[in-house]
Amino acid sequence: MSDCLFCKIAAGEIPSAKVYEDEVCLAFRDIDPQAPTHFLVIPKAHIGSVAEITPENAPAIAHIFQVIARTARELGLDSYRVVSNIGAQAGQSVPHLHFHVLGGRDMTWPPG
Ligand code: AMP
User: Fold this and answer.
1) pLDDT band at residue 112, thresholds of 50, 70 and 90?
2) What is the CA radius of gyration of the chain?
3) Residue 59 alpha carbon to ligand 1 centre in Å
4) Which of 50, 81, 98, 105 has its CA 20 to 30 A from that of 32?
5) Which atom of ligand 1 is nearest to the CA of 29?
């Protein structure tokens, strides 16, 4: 999508602090980190949110979770949280599917 921030980051049109990239997805550090380690993993193809996962794009999502596990391990995390906000009420501010990966501090439950 031409006006999508994360599509532009995926295309390299807007710089990001990349921690992993392949043909399917990109992982980069959140610009406003909420934990000592906080990165986002996005599909390069535009998907609006978890609510738009389908049988057709599900293989990319499975791949992304493998990337989350491997990248978290490589960044030294052995305990972390994976979060995806869906819709404005849940706090989604960028309408391109992304998984937050947060670690390096104690977490509380339930999230606010
Ligand atoms: P959400 O609010 O769940 O949609 O998450 C969007 C996240 O994207 C927020 O945590 C923002 O800090 C982050 N973000 C916004 N713009 C950028 C950017 N240019 N580079 C890295 N992270 C960003």
Assistant:
1) confident
2) 13
3) 24
4) 50
5) 21
